Amino acid sequence: MSRAQTRPSPLHIFLAFGSGGLLTLMVDFNGLVAFHGGAMYSSWVAHGTGTIAAIAFLALMRLRTAPGETAPKPAAPLWAYLGGVSGAITVMLTSITVNSALALSGTLALGLAGQVLFSLAADRWGLFGLPQRIPKIRDFGAVALIFAGSLIIIFANG
C-alpha cells in the first residue's frame, strides 16, 4: 500500500475516529493502573497485555492464511521498531499527567496538539519515509485552534 495522497474513505475516517475513542480508554485505564502501581508498572501492564493480544491475533491470522499465499515483503527499516519505545514512554507520561491537575481531557487535548505539531514537521521534512508536504496556513490555524481548545479545557474550571 502506498502513501500517495488520495481522499480518505468513510471507513478510514470512522476507523481513525474510533481509534481516538480507544486511545481515550487506554489512557484512562493506564492512568488508573499507574495510580495504584506507578507509571512504570502501568507501562509494563499495557505492553504485556498488548503482547499477549498480538500473539493471539497472529495465531488467528496464521490459521486463516492458506499455505503458499504469502508474498515476500520487504524488511522494515530498523527505525520502525522504535515505535515500541515511544509507546512505552507515551504510556508512562500519560499515566502521570492523567493523575495530575490536567486530568484525562487536558492530557488528551495537549497530546493531540503535540501529535499535530509533530505530524506537520514529519510532513514538511518527509521524516520516516513520508512524502514531503509543505504545511499550509490552514494547518497552522488548526494547530492554533487545538491549543486554544486545550487551554479552555485546562483552565476553564466551570
From TrEMBL:
Pfam families tied to this protein: DMT_YdcZ
Top-level lineage group: Bacteria
Signal sequence extent: none
Keywords per UniProt: Membrane, Transmembrane, Transmembrane helix
Gene Ontology CC terms: plasma membrane
Regions that span the bilayer: 12-35, 41-63, 75-96, 102-120, 140-157
InterPro entries referenced in this protein's UniProt entry, alphabetically: YdcZ
Protein name: Transporter family-2 protein
